[in-house]
Design brief:
By secondary structure, this protein is of the alpha/beta class. The chain has one domain: Rossmann fold. It is built from four helices and six strands; from the N terminus they run βαββααββαβ. The strands form two sheets. A three-stranded mixed β-sheet has the order 1-2-3, with helices on both faces. Strands 4-5-6 form a three-stranded parallel β-sheet, with helices on one face. The longest helix has 19 residues. The radius of gyration is 15 Å and the shape is globular. The two termini are 19 Å apart. The mean pLDDT is 84.
Length: 158
């Protein structure tokens, strides 16, 4: 899941996220990992690559990814949790992981359930004064937290 709200345009945050996403897509393609991408921008989340192998279509989406509008990150997280629960029921042998790439600039914090699968929040907040909400989101989800500037190499598949 990538947060592509207007706030990610500041201080090169989205550019860093796109570089990371390019690495993830390349690794997923090489490892033949299925991806479900959810872009949170504007007024609602948009599903991309719904359970498909990483492909040139996802690379084209990444090349055109821009930032704008609000941050529908919380509804996107709720959608992702519902999708993951349905998918796990249909395919119990699949291993799922949730990666959330965000600057954490969310105005409202309704209650969120912890992630049902291993999760990682990658903080792309790059402003000189950081508010640290991505770390708070990671705690709420029971997820690991890393800032993009200190992110270790991450395998796509285990």
């Amino acid at each position: 899941m990538v947060d592509a709200s207007a706030s990610t345009r500041r201080h090169g945050a989205l550019a860093k996220a796109k570089g990371l996403l390019a690495e993830i897509l390349a690794a997923a393609r090489k490892q033949r990992v299925r991806l479900v991408m959810l872009e949170a921008a504007g007024s609602q989340a948009q599903w991309l690559g719904h359970g498909r192998l990483a492909s040139a279509a996802l690379r084209n989406w990444l090349d055109g990814l821009g930032a704008g509008g609000g941050t529908p990150l919380l509804p996107a997280l709720q959608e992702a949790a519902a999708w993951q629960a349905r998918r796990q029921g249909l395919h119990p042998a699949e291993n799922h992981r949730l990666w959330v790439i965000t600057d954490g600039r969310i105005r409202e914090w309704p209650a969120l359930a912890p992630s049902a699968c291993p999760a990682l929040v990658i903080d792309i907040e790059s402003a000189p004064v950081r508010i640290g909400r991505a770390r708070q989101l990671a705690q709420t989800l029971g997820a690991q937290y890393h800032h993009i500037d200190t992110l270790p190499a991450l395998p796509v598949a285990q």
